[in-house]
Amino acid sequence: MDSIEVVIAHQERATLRVGDVFLKVDADQKRTDAEVAAMALAPLPTPEILWRRPPVLALAALPGVALGVLGEPSPASPAAWAAAGAAARTLHDTSLPPWPGRTVDDWASELDREYTWLITNAVLPTALVTRNRRVAEAALRPWTPAFIHGDFQLTHVFTDGDALTGVLDWSEAAPGDPMFDLATLTLGHEERLTDVLRGYGPGADPDMIRAWWSLRSLVVIRWLSENGFDPSAPGCEIDVLKAQL
């Protein structure tokens, strides 16, 4: 060990890597409580908890490498992406965690608020935002809740060759729409959707996945901009919205 790596840092939480140990510092201990509980229930490989001393949670590094990074081509094989889809299916088929998740009304309220902010502040062309809102609204329908990861992005899914080795960052896990996980995984990587669906098996709805691409991108732009991230970077959220046209 010759350095400390800042993996991510913003107003709510920070993650540091020290050798093979990840130190997660979270201002809201309820999120950490949820993460620890979700990892105990999840039927997937998760990081080993080394110790917890609030506000810090220490986790062992997972073997393998992440599927990729948003905005960059993924080096992972089609079989690795299919393995990620199969892992999502395994999670979605297990029993629900015993705490509530976000409802359709919660998502609708957030979409209304962020749509208004985007239009009022002329962050993006009105036609682009309005068109994506129409696409996004398809996701706001009754769904059968499943145990979802809640932040199943490709940087949280680790593989070694074609095999899944583990999934990170369970603080958003809760009952929810399983298509949200598949949309989060494939956001900005539409070319990998077929591989993911092959691993996931029957029951996936590509139209709902695309609706969640729009919804997730619209509601996160303000947060990303205020926390030091760039949603306009190539291949990221704003490009996802443009691709939906």
Automatic annotation (TrEMBL):
Domain Aminoglycoside phosphotransferase: 33-205
Pfam families: APH
Gene3D superfamilies per UniProt: 3.90.1200.10
Membrane-traversing stretches: none
Name assigned to this protein: Aminoglycoside phosphotransferase
Organism encoding this protein: Actinoplanes palleronii
Top-level lineage group: Bacteria
